[in-house]
Amino acid sequence: MKIKDIVNRDIVTLNNCEHEPIHIPGKIQPHGFLIGVSSDWKIDFCTDNIFGFINLSHTEALGKNFDAVFGSEAKQQILTYLTTDKIQNVFPLEMTLLGKSFQVSIHTSHGICILEAEPQFPDKEKLADVYTQTIQFVTQMNKTKSLKDLCALVAEGTREITGYDRVMIYRFDEQYNGEVFAESCREDLEPFLGLHYPHTDVPVQARELYIKNQLRLIVDIDYIPVPIFTVDDEENKNLDLSLSILRSTSPIHVEYLKNMGVGATLTISLMHHDRLWGLIACHHYSKKNISPEIRLAAKLQGEFITSQIDIRQSNDEFINAQKTTLALESLTSLDVPILQESLEKIVVSPQLLDICNAAGVCIVSRKKFYKNGLTPSDEEIASIISQITSQNNLELFSTNKLHNHISGISQNTNVAGIIYHSLGNNDHIIWFRPETVSEINWGGDPEKSIIKDQNGLHPRNSFDIWKQIVKNQSIRWEQYEINASVQYAHTLHNHLIMIMLSEEEEKYRNQSEILKETNSELENINWISTHDLQEPLRKIQMITSKMLTEPNIISTESISNSLKRISKSASRMRGLLEDILKYTRIKNTRDTLQKVNLNEVLKATLKEMKETIKEKNAVVEYENLPEVYAIVFLMQQLFINILQNSLKYASTERTPIIKITASQEPVIMHHLYKVHCHWIRFSDNGIGFEQEYAQSIFKVFTRLHHQEQYTGSGIGLALCKKIMQTVGGDIHAEGKLNQGTDIILYFPCDPEDTLNQIAL
Question: Taking every annotated instance into account, which residue ranges of this chain make up the domain Histidine kinase (predicted)?
Fold first, then answer.
C-alpha cells in the first residue's frame, strides 16, 4: 500500500491570489490531529502528528478499519453522535481513543467523515458558567438602544469571556471593505476603532469559508503546519476542509497577522440575511487556545448581534423614518387643485424635500422644469434624465456617486446624489443631495494590500493610518428614504393623471358647449335668413313688381324714391351677408399667434375711424396698452367693433366719452383656469343696459333694441367674442342702464396658456 501527502503546493501569484484554494490546504494546525474515514469505515486520511497524541503512527492507521484500530465502542459513539437529533458542532464529542481523552469535532465532507481530535481541557468551563455569563449579557443587552451600543457591549463581553487582548466588531460595506465598528482592547494597545480596511484583506474565497464555517481559530501564529496523508489510490486526491476547526491557514494570511504582531486569533462570522455582515475578530499577542465551552459562548455573542441587527438598525432609523413618514403624510394631504399649475405649489413644499432628506428637487412635466433647493441647470437635468432612461429604460434609479454614472455634469455642480423616478408620459421627478467631502482612515495603504518582491507575494507590513479624502459622493440614501420617494412618486403620478383627465373632461365639456353654441348660431342664422334677409327681398320684389305693372302711371319722382328704397334694402342685405361672412371667417381662423403691440393697433384703429368719431363729436381717452399674444388684423377688427358699438349706442343727452384702460402688470384671473392675464377695459357713457343681459349681448344676432331705433345685424359683439376665443382670451360686459357700458378683454400672458385655452 502506497501512502502520499495531499499538501497543496500550488504557487500563489498576483493573478490567482484571489482564487487561492484555501479550503484544500492538505495540512492542519498542530494542536490536534485529524482522521478521515470513508463510508465503509476505512481510515482514508490521517495527519502525521497523530503519534504525538496517541501511540499510533499515520502509516499504521491508514487503510485500516476504524473499529479495528480504535475499537467498536468508539465507532458506536461516533454513529450515535452523528444520528442523534441535535445541532452538530455545538459541543464536540468527548471520547477516549487508545486510552487518551479527547474532544472530537465531527463533520462530513464529500462522503468522508472527518474527525478532529483535541486533548480534553483540564480546566474546561462548565455549562452553568456559560449560562450565567449569557444571562448577564442578555440583561445588559436589553439596556442598549442602538446597534453601535450593542456591538460595543458584545466586544467588551467577548473579551471578558475569552480573555483575548483585543476584540473587534468588524463590519463590511457593500463592496466588503471593512470598518472596525466597535472595539475592546487592553489599555496599553493602540486602538483600531474607526479604521477601515480594503476588501482585499478578506478575499472572496475567505468570505465564502466564513459563511460555511462560522468559527475560526488560530492557536499559534508561529505554528508549523502538519501535512495530511492518504492512501495513494487515485490521482489528485484531496480533502475539503471548509468546515474544519483545525484547517491550516493561508500563508499570506499568517504573514499578514505576523506583520500586525498578532500571536493567536479567534474569528466568528456575523451572518445577516444569508450575507456576511461582519466578523468578531479576537486578537491575542501571544499563543492562546480556548475550550469548546468558551468558543460556544463567544459564538453566542455573535448570534446576539445578528439576531438584533434588524431590530437595532430599525431603531436607529426609526426617528428619521418617522420624520419621513410624517412628511409624506403631510405632503399627500396637501390641498392642491387638479391643475398643471399645482406643481408650482407642490415643488416648493418643504415636505417634498423632507420625505427623503434631500437638498433639492425637480419635477419635469410637459417639458417644463419646476425646481426647489439645490439643483443642477435645466440642461444638466435633461441630460441626467436622458442618460438614465437610455439605460434599460429605468423607472427608478438612485446613487450617491452621480459622476460615476452620468457624464457631462459640471464639476462646479455641487450635486453628487440623486433619486430618480419616471412619472410616465415623459414626466419625471428627481431629488438631489450635495457632495459630502469625507475623510477615511485606512489601516495602511489600501492600494498596497499585496506586495510582490523577489521572494514572492506578501501582505503589507505597514499598518500606519492612511488618510484618504473622498470626493464626488453624497451621503448614502437609506432604504426608507428610497421607499418614501417611491410612494410619493406614485402619488404624484396619479395626480398628473388626474390633471390630464380633468383637462380632457374640460376639453370635452367646452367642446360640448361650443357645439351647443354652434347649434344655437345655426338656428339664428336660419332665422336671419328667413326673416332679416327675406324682409328686404320682399320689399325689393314688391317695389319692382309695382314699377313693372304700372310703368306709365308712376311718376319720375316715385321711380326715384322706389329705387332709393331698393338700394337701401339691398345695402342692408349686403351688410348682413358681410357680417355673417366675417363671423364664419373668424370662427375658422387658427393662425399662429404673435406678440402684438396693442398701442399700435389702437392708433391704426383711431386713424381709420377718425371721420366717424368726429361725426359723433366723441372723445376717446386711452393709456398705455400691453403687448399680448394675438393676431394683428383680428385685434383691429376687435377694436373697431367695440368702438363702433359704443358710438352706435351713445346717449343723445351728453357728449360721448370712451375711456380705454389696461393692467400694467399681469394679474391672476381665477375664472380663467388661474392663468396670468392682461386686462383691457373700454368704458363709455352711452345708454348702457341691464346687467341681466350681460351674457346674451354676445350671442349672434341678439338685439336689445328695435331695428328702427338702432340699425345693425346684431353680430358685432358676437364677433368680438369669437375673436377673443380665437386668441385664447375672454370677454365680459358690465352695464348700467342710462349710465354706460364697460367691455373688458382678458389676454393670457403665456403663449402656452393661450394655446391651451384655444384647445379648450
Answer: 528-751
